[in-house]
Amino acid sequence: MKNMNRIITLLLISAGLFACCTGKQPDKTKETIHLLNNLKQIPTKGFLFGHHDDPVYGIGWEGDPGRSDIKSVCGAYPAVMSFDLGHIETGEHQNLDKVPFQTIRTHIIEHYQRGGMISLSWHPRNPLTGGDSWDVTDTTVVASILPGGKNHDLFTGWLDSVATFINSLKTAGGTPIPILFRPWHEHTGSWFWWGQKLCSTRQYKELWHLTYQQLQKKQVKNILYAYSPGMESGNVAEYLERYPGDQIIDLLGIDIYQYERSEYIRELEKSLTILSEAGRMHDKPIAITETGFEAIPDSCWWTGTLLPIVEKYPLSYVLVWRNAREKENHYYAPYPEQISANDFIRFYHSPKTLFIGDKFELYK
Ligand code: BMA
Q1: Whose CA is closest to 331, among 6, 26, 53?
Q2: What is the average pLDDT across 313-317?
Q3: Is the CB–ligand 1 distance for residue 84 below 6 Å?
Q4: CA-CA to 38 of 20 to 30 Å: which in 139, 198, 200, 214?
Q5: Is ligand 1 within 6 A of the CB of residue 96?
Q6: What is the tens place of the pLDDT at every residue in 230-259?
Q7: pTM for this one?
C-alpha cells in the first residue's frame, strides 16, 4: 500500500512537471468544453433560437424586469441571447447601443442560470482614426495594431478590457460563465475596419492570433470563439480563405439578412451548403450567427421562409438581430401585435426550434 501511494505520488509529480514544462494548461473550463460538445449534439434535436439584446429593450420598452419581446409573443425566452461589447475598449460604462455593461453582466448571469447560451459580438472603435467600427477611411488600421505597429500597445490594452469583462462573468458561486465570443465578424465584406479590402489575409489571421493570445495571457478560459463571415463566399475555399485555424476557432457561422425574398432563399441555401461542408471538414458546430428581415413585413416569414430552409441543415443555433427601441423600424423579432407574431408562435411550436423550457442541456 505504501509503495502504491509512493507510485501515485510520483505519477502526480511527473504529470505536474510535464504540464509545467510544456506550458500546457487546459485553455477552457469544463463547462465551456461541455458547451462546445453539447453544441455539436444540438442538431440531432433541432436548433437553438437566439435574439440580440433580448432582455434589455424592445419595441416600446426598455429595462422592464423579466421582459423580452420574444417571451411576450410565445411565452418563452430565446435559448441564445447575444450582447455587444463595443466601447468597452475605451472604458465607457455603456456600449455603442447605450446598454450599460453592468446590465449586460446581470442578464448574462440570469440567462446562464436558466440554462441558456450567451454570445458576445464586439464593434470596437477604430483604433487608428478614433472613428467607429464602420470607419473604413484608412486601410492601415489592422497593420497599425499588429505587433510592431504604432497602435499595438493601445490595442492590447483594448483586448485586456475585453478579458477583464469576460473574466468578471461568474455565478454567485464563482463558476465562470461560458461565452461564445464572435469578434472580427462579417470580414468578407468591407464595411468594418477589419474587412476584406481593409487588410490582407495574413493580417486578418494575425489579428485573430493576437486576440486569442492576449486573452489567453489574461487567463480567459470561459470562451469559445466563433468565425462568422458574411454571405459573400461562393464556395468552401472562399469561406475559409481567412480562417485563423482549428486551434483557435470553435464554431463556424454566417451572417446573412433578407432584403428580397427569392435572393435570400437562394443565398441562404448556398451559404448553408458551404457552412455545412466547412463544419464537417473541420469538425466544428455551425450556426447562423446573425439573420433577419428588418421590420418583418411578411406575416408568415418564420414558417414560410426561414424554417423550411434552416431545418434542413445541421445548425446549432439561429439568431436574429435586435429590436431597437431608438431607431424606427429597426427590429428583427416580433412583438405582440406585430404582423408576424402569430406565425412566430407556429415557429415556436415546431419541434425543431429550441427555446428556454425545451429539452436541451448545454453545460453538463
Ligand atoms: C447594427 C445596427 C446598429 C448597431 C450595431 C451594433 O446592425 O443594429 O444600430 O449599433 O448593429 O449592435
Answers
A1: 53
A2: 99
A3: yes
A4: 214
A5: yes
A6: 999 999 999 999 999 999 999 999 999 999
A7: 0.94
